Amino acid sequence: MLVYGLAYLTSHMNLIALTLRQHASLIRRFPLAIALLLLICGTMLWHSFELHEILHGVGYLLAVWLCAFVIDLVVNAKPRQAIGFPIKRPVRSELRTILLCEIAATIYLVIHFSNAGQTMPRNIRILLLPLMAFVFPIVLALIYLFRYKYRLRDLGINLHYWWLALIVHVIIGAITIWVAPEKIHWLSMYKEYCILGWVLSGFIGAALSEEFVRMLFQTRLGAAFKDMGLGLVLASVIWGLMHIPANSQGGASLKAGTIEAIEYIPIGVLWGYMTHRTRSMIPAILLHGLNAWGLQNF
Q1: How far is residue 185's CA from residue 51's CA, in Å, rounded to a whole number?
Q2: CA separation for the pair 292, 175 (Å, rounded)
Q3: Could you report the per-residue pLDDT of 242-292, keeping only the tens digit for each?
Q4: Which end of the chain, C or N, has fewer beta carbons within 10 A?
């Protein structure tokens, strides 16, 4: 019995050591991505210091790293074969398509959340409505499914590690309760959206659409730069900065909106990393859709 117990403990200690070595090797393998991520984290920490919320800032980054570590532990302990994210067309061609769609989405967001957009004549606002098919990437999904002939499994639609999202969700929740309990907004989300509204807005409107675009960006940028780490971070930088129009409405300055968008990037990197490691979009979609802890909000 003791022998089996020691063998079990040794195997798990070896797994932890392996995962720690993998994380240490990321610095050597992806120096540009790490440098960019450090700049982002430094900006976020400085802002949290200015707000006298440094514990919150440190706890946020601790949660992101710890969750990434747990993701790697699980994937190392229970490896599964998966197709991954094949790129069937020339990567520059696909990137051009993604960028054009996201530029169209950004144009709509800038107009919609600007003061001019709020006072714009109704008939012009109606003319702009088709651009919503780019904000919620319906056009992009149709292109990939019917023009580029991707199958759902090529785009990471599988149930591999779906339950891992629940483990990571609990870790983020525990750290939020410790460092920033006032940011938790489960009750307000429920009151505002109810269950059906949460499913439609949180999971379909936000999580599914944003994780789909993030997956496309990080895989195609990674292939284009021959640096998957840089692709992953850049994808979440783009995702974060696209929140600037919404963050800057209601009298908020562009600077404040930009800083708030930068603060979202670490959790976006975590969601992208989960997709990368599990070879599935489902865990990140679940984690994103359940994100009512508010740890990324300062």
Answers
A1: 20
A2: 13
A3: 999 999 887 778 999 999 999 999 999 999 999 999 999 999 999 999 999
A4: N
What integer best gives the mean pLDDT of the chain?
Answer: 92
Q: Please state, for a pLDDT cut of 70, what percent of the chain lies above it.
A: 96
Amino acid 243 reads H
- Is there a contact between 278 and 271 (Cβ–Cβ < 8 Å)? no
The contacts of residue 124 (CB under 8 Å, 6+ apart) are none
- Report d(CA 280, CA 153) in Å as an integer: 9
Q: Please report which confidence band the pLDDT of residue 11 belongs to, taking 50, 70 and 90 as the band edges.
A: low
Number of Cβ within 10 Å of residue 284's Cβ equals 29
What's the predicted TM-score (pTM) here? 0.94
- Cα dihedral 200, 244, 288, 154, rounded to 10, equals 90
Q: Which of 51-60, 144-153, 174-183, 243-252 comes out lowest in average pLDDT?
A: 243-252
Written in H, E and C, the secondary structure of the chain is CHHHHHHHHHHHHHHHHHHHHHHHHHHHHCHHHHHHHHHHHHHHHHHHHHCCCHHHHHHHHHHHHHHHHHHHHHHHHCCCCCCCCCCCCCHHHHHHHHHHHHHHHHHHHHHHHCHHHHHCCHHHHHHHHHHHHHHCCHHHHHHHHHHCCCCHHHHCCCCCCCCHHHHHHHHHHHHHHHHCHHHCCHHHHHHHHHHHHHHHHHHHHHHHHHHHHHHHHHHHHHHHHCCHHHHHHHHHHHHHHCCHHHHCCCCCCHHHHHHHHHHHHHHHHHHHHHHHHHCCCHHHHHHHHCCCCCCCCC
pLDDT score of 10: 63
